[in-house]
Amino acid sequence: MSTFYGDSSKWLDFWNQFEGTIHNNGNLSKTEKFTQLKSLLSGNALAAISGFVLSDRNYDSSIEILKDRFGRQDIIISSHMNKLLSIEPVRNISNVKALRKLFDECEIQIRSLESLNVTFGSYGNLLRPIILQKIPEELHFEFNRNRKEQSKFYITELIEFLRREINCREAANLMNYSKIFQRQDKEKAETNGITPRLNRKLQVRLLCQR
Predict the structure, then answer these.
(1) Short-list 183, 171, 182, 46, CA closest to 96
(2) Considering the entire predicted model, what is its pTM?
(3) What are the tens digits of pLDDT across the range 69-84?
(4) Which of 22, 61, 85, 207 could form a disulfide with 167 if both were Cys (CB 3.0 to 4.6 A apart)?
(5) What does the DSSP assignment read for 57-108?
(6) Residue 202 confidence (pLDDT)
């Protein structure tokens, strides 16, 4: 099990693992469970229960404190929203690697919100400006130009747009690398006095749909 440091966005993963392997283990006493719990906490999480000595009663109290401090749904939602806010913006549309990282981080937080039964309607208006401020102006403009009027699932539409755009740009980069390799092969063959022959072929299927 990984150590829990107090990041509320990671609480559910931690608790589900701990509950399944230790908390519900009938072969362990509460004091033993408390020992295991403390060994898996660090940072703010450990500090929250640092005043408790090992005992059955204190184990129950510690669980209550941790759940109230890090496991409340409103706190977890706020944590995911803060992670979206802290994502590094990408200003250069040619930086495909950074765009992919931005997209993956956004999707992780959005899917986590969905797992908490947070509906599009309840957080869509908050997410919309956050994500649009993170992407290059060219993509922002392209999305607004092509989006459907009064789209019901705006966030879904935005995420799918970014997915297609990034997939396309990654595929285009692969095509460019293929051309570079082919040119290098040709130059090497000509230098060695060998008839140029294509010996590398990369086929890329573009994943975007205009």
Answers:
(1) 171
(2) 0.75
(3) 999 999 999 999 999 9
(4) 207
(5) HHHHHHHHHHHHHH--HHHHHHHHHHHHHHSPP---TT-HHHHHHHHHHHHH
(6) 44
